[in-house]
Design goal:
Helix content: 40-55%
Distance between the termini: 49 Å
Shape: elongated
Radius of gyration: 28 Å
Structural class: alpha/beta
Largest sheet: 7 strands, parallel
């Protein structure tokens, strides 16, 4: 990154590129995304997702599964999956069929890098989702990010659900409840004949005043027309105005509008530079999430003081790549703008945490420590960076190391305060010790500017466990060598005032807020 000079008066800070400007999704046809985002932000649009979003994790789609089953039941590989399912049950038994499905669809865990579409759905924090998927990929991904959704398969599940609890309606059943499965032709016909199926009644009620957004379907899925027929029947013979974000778009899908009134969105048209249909689909879904969250964020303060839950988004690999590009080639202002737009208050997937930490460290090396605006942006990014402690300490240390090049200030320098909620209270000395190591590794001579700041950062190190203190002491001795040792935190008497960490201060503030009961959300 080119550090450059401080912007002149005719270069207003507001001109710095925001992360939203990095999107390739532009043009008049993107108005549909704004419409969908507005509906999602108001919880007036119900996501209904299909097999496309699980394909990367499962490693197969319906066609591949059919080719695997066909030789087992002695049928041609081009036979429809729904017919093969019935043949499997007829020839090998229902229990064998259920065992086969479980081996394919029920996973012990998910690969974080292969569930990006699920993470994007989670970013929307919908209270209600429908799916025809019978795998458990969404449930596992949601659990990994602390978003517990209650799967709804049976009437008992509906009865057990708590008002306001996030629900995942598994519209075609789950292998754990064999009688619930809608997989073969016979089970589909049985579902059609059931005029008052509990999930049909649930859908009918949920659609009062709301619309549907089908995600991850294509006409290559033989069930898409069956699904739309089922949903139309469940909705008393009429689908509300609905949308379909196609996984594999085909021009014949436009007929869905004439038949069902479903408006089809072609991701490749919105993302023409995407290399594959899957890439275009995920970029389009990411853009929809960003626009939705932007609308939600505009109401953030209102939600904060009304007790409403503020949705936390999940960062994506596409965003990391975009910020890496702009940070590498652009000025600091563009890099920090992109970083904050992508990662402020975002949940960072496990597979991306090291890259996001490296991005923050690189930004600190490119910043001008004399520029208070740049320092404020870095402090704000650190404050809103949600990373596990082992990564957050590295980010905090990198920002502390920047203090080595900061000019000495007369009086109090507010750079001594670097709040980082991801680091536990009392562990700032650990980050300060790591900052000394970073400076030493770079060959930087430790300055009085750093020492004047680090006096505060090392406060409370004597309260840490003895084995942690042993790691910190060499760093302090390195920062205050020779005759300076008399001024080091090792020689200074402990402060009579107990140092309060970020979380303690926050807890004391929250304790003073009015207390009230939380009402359940329907």
């Amino acid at each position: 990154m080119d550090n450059g000079e401080t912007p002149s008066a005719d270069q207003a800070p507001s001109d710095a590129p925001q992360f939203g400007t990095l999107s390739e999704v532009n043009g008049p046809e993107t108005a549909i995304l704004d419409q969908l985002a507005d509906l999602l932000a108001k919880h007036k649009l119900i996501p209904f997702f299909g097999a496309g979003i699980s394909r990367r994790q499962l490693g197969f789609a319906a066609a591949e599964l059919a080719q695997e089953i066909a030789p087992l039941v002695h049928k041609p590989p081009e036979t429809l999956l729904s017919q093969l399912a019935d043949d499997f049950i007829d020839q090998l038994g229902e229990s064998a069929f259920i065992s086969f499905l479980k081996s394919k669809l029920v996973l012990p865990e998910v690969d974080d890098a292969k569930v990006s579409a699920h993470r994007l759905l989670l970013s929307l924090s919908p209270r209600l989702l429908y799916t025809t998927n019978q795998d458990n990929v969404f449930e596992l991904a949601a659990r990994n990010y602390g978003r517990r959704y209650r799967p709804i398969v049976t009437l008992q599940d509906l009865s057990d659900a708590i008002p306001g609890e996030p629900l995942l309606i598994k519209f075609h059943g789950d292998p754990g409840f064999p009688s619930s499965l809608v997989f073969g032709d016979r089970s589909y016909q049985e579902r059609i004949r059931s005029e008052n199926h509990p999930l049909d009644i649930k859908l009918r009620a949920d659609l009062l005043g709301k619309r549907l957004l089908f995600i991850g379907y294509s006409l290559h899925d033989e069930n898409v027309n069956k699904l739309l027929d089922t949903v139309r029947r469940a909705a008393a013979g009429r689908l509300p105005p609905s949308y379909l974000l196609a996984f594999d778009y085909d021009s014949s899908m436009d007929g869905l509008y004439r038949t069902y009134g479903v408006e089809v969105i072609n991701p490749r048209r919105l993302c023409p530079t995407a290399s594959t249909n899957a890439d275009a689909f995920e970029r389009c879904l990411k853009e929809l999430c960003d626009r939705t969250i932007s609308i939600q964020a505009s109401c953030g303060l209102e939600a904060l003081f009304s007790g409403e839950e503020i949705n936390a988004r999940v960062a994506t690999e596409f965003e990391v790549e975009a910020v890496e590009r702009i940070a590498k080639s652009g000025p600091f202002e563009a890099g920090i703008s992109g970083f904050r737009g992508a990662f402020d208050l975002a949940l960072i997937p496990m597979s991306l945490r090291e890259r996001v930490t490296d991005l923050f460290r690189n930004l600190t090396t490119c910043a001008d420590p004399k520029d208070d605006n740049q320092m404020a942006d870095l402090r704000g990014a650190l404050l809103n960076l949600h990373l596990p402690a082992e990564f957050a300490i590295q980010a905090l240390a990198a920002l502390m190391a920047l203090g080595n090049r900061r000019p000495e200030r007369q009086g109090f320098d507010d750079f001594v305060s670097l709040p980082c909620p991801a680091v536990a209270d009392g562990f700032n000395p650990v980050a300060a010790a790591l900052a000394v190591t970073l400076l030493t590794d770079r060959g930087e001579v430790i300055t009085d500017s750093f020492r004047n700041l680090a006096i505060y950062w090392f406060r409370g190190f004597e309260d840490l466990k003895p084995d942690v203190q042993k790691l910190i002491r060499p760093a302090i001795e390195l920062a205050w060598p020779g005759h300076r040792a008399a001024e080091s935190p090792l020689r200074r008497p402990p402060s009579p005032f107990r140092h309060k960490g970020f979380h303690q201060i926050l807890a004391e503030m929250l304790a003073g807020f009015p207390k009230r009961f939380t009402n359940p959300k329907e």
